[in-house]
Amino acid sequence: MRRIFFIITSALLIQSSSAQNIDRTKPPKPGPAPVIKIGDPTVYKLANGITVLVVENHKLPKVTASYSIDAGPITEGAKAGGLSLMGQMLEEGTKLRSKAAFDEAVDRIGARVGLSAGGGSASALTRYFDSAFMLMAEALQKPSFTQSSLDKLKSQTLTNLKSNERSVPAVAGRVTSALLYGVNHPNGEFATEESVTKLTLNDMEQFYKRKRIPEVAKPV
Fold first, then answer.
1. Global pTM?
2. Cα–Cα–Cα angle for 178, 181, 186, nearest 5°?
3. Of 186, 189, 181, which Cα lies nearest the Cα of 211?
4. pLDDT tens-digit profile of 86-132?
5. Residue 146's closest CA among 104, 93, 84?
6. CB 150 within 8 A of CB 89
7. Are 207 and 56 in contact (CB under 8 A)?
8. What phi, psi does 11 have (nearest 5°)?
9. Euclidean distance between CA atoms 1 and 144, whole angstroms
10. Contacts of 69 (CB under 8 A, 6+ apart)
């Protein structure tokens, strides 16, 4: 027992002595930068004009896909804020299932499905990816667009606009974009309480029709 105790004590003393010799006035040197290798994609062109890019990586049993709608910037004008609102409505359920049922279907397979005005994304374990991808497709192709969802999202948007009135970063961001691009440019215009209040369900459907053109979509 004495011998074991002596060995442990000696080890602790060596570690303590080594720690005291560290110059803490100088930051430690960074390690080598990680090497990131992204394989060249395999490109396919579908009959409906959609371009598909596939990059394989078999380190994890997982598949991730993103669907990008390359429709270019859209000037919203008096309906500023409508495009963003339409993107949020894509996550409010579909014609086949309610928002609660849709979210439950995603959670059941441990997947992630995201929707926006610019497209969508799906990520899941390989065995569940087909289901996750079809859920994303369902949300993009068959959104429900109900009045109750629009009213809820408009209320949330108006609340955020009100709270941002006293936010210096938010106001500065708007002013900077407006000065750089002009208020009549897609990157310079911004939503206001007036523009959001006037948005209707028909406006959401019109924005949706302008953004869902298959010829400019690119699932990756």
1. 0.76
2. 90
3. 186
4. 999 999 999 999 999 999 999 999 999 999 999 999 999 999 999 99
5. 93
6. yes
7. no
8. -65, -40
9. 75
10. 117, 118, 119, 211, 212, 213, 216, 217, 218
